[in-house]
Amino acid sequence: MDSAPPLKRYEALAADIEASIRSGTLRVGDRIPSVRRTGESRGVSASTVFQAYYLLEARGLIRARDRSGYYVAEGGSRAAPPEAELSSQPDGESVALDVSEHVFSILEASMTREVVPFGSAFPSPLLFPLPRLGQILASSAKKLDPWSTVDDLTPGSVALRRQIALRYLANGVNVQADDIVITNGALEALNLCLGAVTRPGDSVIVESPTFYAALQALERMDLRAIEVPTHPREGIELDALEQAVVRHKPSACWLMTTFQNPLGSLMPAAKKKALVELLTHHDVPLIEDDVYAELYFGDRQPVPAKAFDTDGLVLHCSSFSKSLAPGYRIGWAAPGRFTRDVARRKLTTTLNTSVPAQLALATYLERGGFDKHLRKLRQTLATQQATFAQAVGHHFPEGTRATRPLGGYFMWVELPTTVDALELHRRALTLGISIAPGPVFSATGGFGHHLRLNYGHVWDARAERALATLGRLAGECAKRG
């Protein structure tokens, strides 16, 4: 296995402050040194100090007070589990897939409101401004120009595509409205893009672990998967990726470079640039699944790999389902040189996406409500992650490790090797608790003692009892193993 990469400056600073909190040198209620003082004493910029403080705040260790600075938070000394440090080790072979039935059998069993949704793929719908969106939707429908149902048939609403293009621009990415195809959620965008760059029998590179819907899409299109080692913090290993490209000559890569599902990993910008350069050199298209990018906990949104695309080889896909409007099923693709092919595939499959829903989202974005909503959503998710991690550290068996993503709402948990995640899933479900066991994120059924947990739902007494129960069950499984 690869050794852990060296800490960045802000991570090293955060680690030192965290150690002071854990040891009791800094106690609950103590004021953290100011940004200016810390920057001067450590010889780093204010930006580096802010990044460290944002990271500590996301971990629940410190809290900001208006016009007063940062203080050690209540419960900050309660230990979260250590982070996962090592990359995965798939065998690197190109494999045919037979995963869908297994995935369906596990996920369908937990799709009910009565189950505590630690295994859910979605955050709580209560976190979104659905009443306000409903008002705008009703108003937009009344004012709907009948010709708009024809004029914007396949590429989608001009108004919405313009708003999406403006958000790309604000993040430093050159994507024009005409480069965008509106779809029925990100999953349709990803499937359309996959179909545009592959043919049955081709191989596609994926991360290890990877999003199970990617594996299902490959299986449905009769494609083969090549799993490549992936680091829990910084994403796919580029040396291993290049070896796989040279050996297998894949038709495409399907990767999540920002807050990957299930790891939560975030590929640094320099690594994203190197990724695009590598794939461009070998003329391999990158399908970039980027649905969590708006859910960052730091001071700025991570740029996508698309930002470094100069040859139109990055097919960027996203949606509003995870950040604004679950259930509206509005996503999009910015497919670069493949835009015309993706638009044609959309035309010959689902033809169009709900026009009233597109107009409602365009209006909401035009009125400037999205960023205000996102600020609140990010803070909520960061706080819930910190609380959740501390509870995992308290209730789960010794030897447990967990990722601490800088965004999104998933935590990847590595249990002692004697725990069978599928057995844990079955036992938890009988008690009304859902989890996503590790094997569903693998083309070969790996990650047998891992699981993905969703911290994007309300943390209350019911959730804490459920997590305590899950930790107890994991401990029992570990002892029996």
UniProtKB/TrEMBL annotation:
Q: What are the residue boundaries of the HTH gntR-type domain, all occurrences included?
A: 7-75
Q: Quick check: keyword Transcription in the entry?
A: yes
Question: A GO molecular function for this record?
Answer: transaminase activity
The UniProt keyword set, sorted, is: Aminotransferase, DNA-binding, Pyridoxal phosphate, Transcription, Transcription regulation, Transferase
What the entry lists under InterPro entries is as follows: Aminotransferase_I/II_large, HTH_trans_reg/aminotransferase, PyrdxlP-dep_Trfase, PyrdxlP-dep_Trfase_major, PyrdxlP-dep_Trfase_small, Tscrpt_reg_HTH_GntR, WH-like_DNA-bd_sf, WH_DNA-bd_sf
Q: Which Pfam families match?
A: Aminotran_1_2, GntR
Q: Which family does it belong to?
A: In the C-terminal section; belongs to the class-I pyridoxal-phosphate-dependent aminotransferase family.
User: Protein name, please?
Assistant: PLP-dependent aminotransferase family protein
